[in-house]
Automatic annotation (TrEMBL):
The keyword Nucleotidyltransferase does not apply. GO terms for molecular function: glutathione peroxidase activity; glutathione transferase activity. Its EC number is 2.5.1.18. Keywords: Transferase. It comes from Locusta migratoria. GO terms for biological process: glutathione metabolic process. Residues 82-204 form the GST C-terminal domain. PANTHER family: GLUTATHIONE S-TRANSFERASE (PTHR11571), HEMATOPOIETIC PROSTAGLANDIN D SYNTHASE (PTHR11571:SF224). It comes from the Eukaryota. It holds the Pfam family GST_C_3. Residues 3-80 form the GST N-terminal domain. It catalyses: RX + glutathione = an S-substituted glutathione + a halide anion + H(+). This is glutathione transferase. The keyword Transferase applies.
Length: 204
């Protein structure tokens, strides 16, 4: 019997979207629960770490976006073929998340002058540093992050490329042809394309 999934997150894509991509890709049924900020405080104590997303699996709760992705990848065969390639995927995802945190700090900065300076520094330093590393990985691994096959890491990466373009208000990926090709490949997988077309509209 298939497990019963419930995914809880705020009404955004952000760090829940990799989970939704995985679930869409494998065709798993789940309840996509989007919680308004006003409804969050009384729910927070009942989450594993006081954060979302949370994935409920037959009533059991798993917190943290990346471990949720990795758990689902193990359940549905979206890991690489060996420990080395899986470690490379883990390292890439952690690096992507490091960049995400830097971009998040910029995105929510309220001081206009400070924000402009932060963006300039990001576009000169962190963004090209990480994107070049990821571009090289994809180039050297048959069009994927590792092992020459689609894994959860590629789905994670694709959602983050979308997020970064939004938050930085520019099409970064177009300057990195292997990343652009991978992203285009993922978003045109039929089940993921269907999800993108029907998913609720959100700011980010």
């Amino acid at each position: 019997m298939a497990p019963k999934y419930k995914l809880l997150y705020f009404p955004f894509r952000v760090i829940a979207e990799p989970i939704r991509f995985i679930l869409a890709y494998v065709g798993a049924d789940y309840e996509d629960v989007r919680i308004e900020f006003s409804d969050w405080p009384p729910l927070k104590p009942d989450t594993p770490y006081g954060t979302m997303p949370v994935l409920e699996v037959d009533g059991k709760k798993l917190g943290q976006s990346i471990p949720i992705c990795r758990y689902l990848a193990k359940q549905y065969g979206l890991l690489a073929e060996n420990d080395w390639d899986n470690a490379q995927i883990d390292a890439a995802v952690d690096a992507i998340n490091d960049l995400r945190m830097s971009i998040k700090n910029f995105y929510f900065e309220e001081n206009g002058s400070t924000k402009n300076n932060m963006k300039e520094k990001l576009m000169k330093e962190a963004v090209p540093f990480y994107y070049k590393k990821l571009e090289e990985m994809v180039k050297n691994n048959g069009g994927y992050l590792a092992g020459g096959k689609l894994t959860w890491g590629d789905l994670y990466l694709t959602t983050m490329l979308e997020l970064f373009d939004h938050d930085l208000e520019c099409e970064i990926t177009k300057d990195y042809p292997h990343l652009a090709t991978l992203r285009n490949k993922v978003v045109n997988i039929p089940s993921i394309k269907t999800w993108i077309e029907k998913r609720p509209k959100s700011e980010r």
